[in-house]
Amino acid sequence: GLLVKVKDGEMTKLSLAQWQAVIDVNLTGVFLCTREVAAKMIEQKSQGAIINISSISRAGNIGQTNYSAAKAGVAAATVTWARELARYGIRVAGVAPGFIETEMTGSMRPEALEKMTSAIPLKRMGRPDEIAHSVAYILENDYYSGRILELDGAMRI
């Protein structure tokens, strides 16, 4: 995904180009990939699952108007696609990670990282393998469809 955060957090300073770049990658990209995979699965009469990656930021995050909107769009589209594709035996679900240990979070200032981590009730960031386990859970559960599985250390409770 692509995250463009406005420095001072004001959406009034977000340019149309910044808005569009994030929407193009995080929403339009998901649409294009899902559309092509679904079409091929239908053509081949192949049942299975499509799993999209959203984010807990879909609930809104200061300075991330474009990213939050894109990830909310992914979550809404995932539910819609689950309903549309169910008749073909195709399940569509999503995973919404919270703060995860990545190169991006690893490059943050220590003070900012500590502030972010302290806001998580479990007092730690998630790990990439935990995201992988959540995807595996969805793949293994043939009745899981049309839902977004949040992995956020209890941030959104």
Automatic annotation (TrEMBL):
It comes from the Bacteria. It catalyses: (2R,3S)-2,3-dihydroxy-2,3-dihydro-p-cumate + NAD(+) = 2,3-dihydroxy-p-cumate + NADH + H(+). InterPro entries: NAD(P)-bd_dom_sf, SDR_fam. Its EC number is 1.3.1.58. One of its GO terms (molecular function) is oxidoreductase activity, acting on the CH-OH group of donors, NAD or NADP as acceptor. Belongs to the short-chain dehydrogenases/reductases (SDR) family. Pathway: Aromatic compound metabolism; p-cumate degradation; acetaldehyde and pyruvate from p-cumate: step 2/7. One of its GO terms (biological process) is fatty acid elongation. Keywords: Oxidoreductase. It is an enzyme of class 1 (oxidoreductase). Gene3D superfamilies: NAD(P)-binding Rossmann-like Domain (3.40.50.720). This is 2,3-dihydroxy-2,3-dihydro-p-cumate dehydrogenase.
